Amino acid sequence: MFESIAYAQTAAGAGVGGEGGNYFLLLIQVALIFMVFYFLLIRPQQKKAQSLKQMLEALKKGDKVVTAGGVIGTVTGMAQDTVTLQVADNVKIKVTRESVSGIRKPEEELASEK
Fold it and tell me: What is the pTM of this model?
């Protein structure tokens, strides 16, 4: 009884689309999923990394910056891989250039002091 039902289902399925059509549809679906992942995940991450790299290259003395650890300071010196920050009067620390996560704008300084 079960053999005839299974046989009828495979015979109907094989006659509708054929083998080649199923692989083509699968290939299109995988390509669409990859495109969605590229535009929603990969591309924005690449743009953010590129803008961070440009910001680190443009870093100069006197910039007020925030590190990845949340330390806020003013750039007083720079070497190839390190940045010296003044975080308080007579307190300077050295951090790696990659740990600088952003430059603070003057309006952010005023808002944080209130």
Answer: 0.61
Using DSSP, state whether 18 is helix, strand or coil. helix
**Tens digit of pLDDT per residue, the chain (114 long)?**
556 565 555 554 554 455 567 899 999 999 999 999 999 999 999 999 999 999 998 899 999 999 999 999 999 999 989 999 999 999 999 999 999 999 998 766 556 665
Which sequence spans correspond to the domains of the chain? 17-58, 61-113
The string of DSSP letters for 34-68 reads HHHHIIIIIHHHHHHHHHHHHHHHT--TT-EEEET
CATH class of 61-113: mainly beta
